[in-house]
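Incident review: delayed structure delivery

Summary: a single-chain prediction request sat in the queue longer than the usual turnaround. Root cause was a stuck worker, restarted by the on-call engineer. No data loss occurred. The affected request and its eventual output are reproduced below so the record is complete for anyone auditing the incident later.

Affected input:
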Amino acid sequence: MKSAWLMGVSAWAISGGLAAAQSTVTSPQDDTAIAEIVVTAQKRAENLQDVPVAVTALTADTLAARGVNNVLALNNMAPGMRISANDAAANPKIYIRGVGLSDFNPNASSGVGVYVDGVYIGSPLAQMAGFYDLAQVEVLRGPQGTLYGRNTNGGAINITTKRPTQTLTADASVEYATFNAVTAEAAVGGPIIADKLAFRAAGQWVKDDGYTYNRVTGHDVNAADHWAGRLSLLYTPTDKFEMLTQVSRYVNRGDAIAPQHRALFPSTAAATGPNGLCAPNAYASGACADLLGYADTDNNSRALDANLEGKDKVDLFGASNQATWTFKGVQLVSVTAWQWAHRNDMENTDGSPARMLEINYRSRQHQFTQELRLQSDNPSGRANWVLGAYFMDETVRDNTRQDTLRDLRPQFITPDNPTGLSPENSVAVFGWPYTQTTKGYALFGQADYKLTDKLTGTVGLRWSADDKHMNYRSQIEDGLIVLLTSDQKKTFSAFSGRLGLRYALSDDANLYATYNRGYKSGGFFGGLATTPAEVEPYDNETLDAYEVGVKSEFLDRRVRLNVSGFYYDYKNQQVFAQALRNGLTVLVLDNAANSKVYGGEAEITARPIQPLTLTAGVSLLHAKYGDYFSEGQDFTGNWLPQSPKVTFNTSATYVAPLANGASIVANVDANYSSKVYFDNSNAERLSQDAVWIAGAQVSWRSPDQKIEAGAFARNLFDKTYVVSISNIDSLGEDLLSMNRPRSLGVFLRYHY
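Output delivered after worker restart:
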């Protein structure tokens, strides 16, 4: 009933997502017509309604109204997309239609590609940066590969920043909110050499005091502190050539994530649940504790006890050059990029005042990529095509250390063992230094051909190969004891492709049907391993995706409705799961399951009257494992993690003109997510029930549109919910990452 009700709402109410991309109005019939949305999802500028892909486009105005300053804030802004993190400044877990990966290790490859100005951001260490001075964000759902340099099977997030122009422009904004949160952004650009060379420089600074109180030290934790800068140069010596060169820097010095602690070991029969762990009604009773006897009993999700207040230090640098030569009806595009990411995160992983589990994540990633595309440049022609080649050279070095049960060392101190080291009792510093190098190659192409005036066919093909070399060592006390070593090489290759048909029902409606095969490269596990089997390579996963959809506008373009339905056959799925090794909970990654995923989505935008824009998006998803057995447990038929059955978002924007030419702009938005599981077991304690989140903003705009000042409320009703859960059963605890509390603030923006 709830699903039917939400679908009904979507038919009239409408979304935060769709009314939003770099858009222009082309000869509307009246001023209530919805602006045309221009996207580059197929490597050329096209009307969103003509693109046979499920894509949501978000403008800079929409992102600003929602307070989006990193990829996590995109959560649920597009149907079927869920983004969360267990880390403060790295490793976002991005899922689209149930496809993604929870592996937080720096050598992991996401199922969803992140691109900034055409450059693939491969490292999960670097995917939380870059969200400032944006022109638009496009979210593409389903496998991408025949048009994109790096293949992904879940989808892609295309981020486009504002380009330099030949007119002087300046933008500045500052907002102040709860927890002394300050976000300041500024950008300036213009000509250096008239009609030849232009620049744009942009920066961002974000800082707050933290929203969680540490009772041990009296400090606030979970504080943000980062800055970023970007310089862009656009060289256009002729109308047949342009070159966009960019350099960027990002520095994070904010707190490491400080999770809530939940004790699992019961001390009484009354506090024991059916699985032998603490019963849910006894979590804060004092009758349950972790392995060292600690329990958080105050039921305050905004306070904790932590002996260590860590920092998540992340440093990023990127440089890219995109050159485009235009010939008669053809373009040659070269995208060259170099990136590095360094991370040093000291984390109080156990979330307690004891020294039970403290992890120092130390990673370095360097990546060079080169993409070449030869593509048609005749949008009105019968055929449009892209041919491309891609190369990636990546090196990941990791030297993470995990200090386990430090407080128990005194029990094992003897004259022969002055440090109290006891590996057989997991009392030790475990490390797993490794170096992984990857050389990736791809050839890809896609052609769209108008079979008739109304029917267009699409065919695409891609060959990819990744040569991976992993040199791995698992050790204790920085090499005092070596548990295992591994030096392996393997090439992972596959073909993928696309077939599609698009039929123009009318000038305002298109019907499409597509088949896509996507794949994600196999590789080597980059976490703590204690047995040789854990470091054996895992294989490619493949996804066969079938989709039908319709894109339509009606009532003189006052209403836009896009609907899609899909079915995924997911094979050799790479699954991140827990295992118990020598009394220690470790994480493993393997090809563990096949899945069937299917569902439907709808996005609608309406302007019933000129000042009012209503939008909404809904996703209905069925995502379950097929046969899946892991570590003696049967997960067959369980719901995929991070895959809610229903997500919904909606917004309303009203622009009220004033007599002097100024205007009042009011915006309200809300989003809903049904129950989410965070673990393959589908255990109730490792889930989050359905939740609604609302926000609002009101502002005054000057008559010349240059100044805007206003106030906002995010998480308006101060909902408290779990973003992610890490369960460490062997130590008797769950670690809960909580959402940000309600934020009330004011802002001032200027545009010249």
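Verification: The longest strand covers residues 481-506.
Action items: add queue-age alerting; document worker restart procedure.
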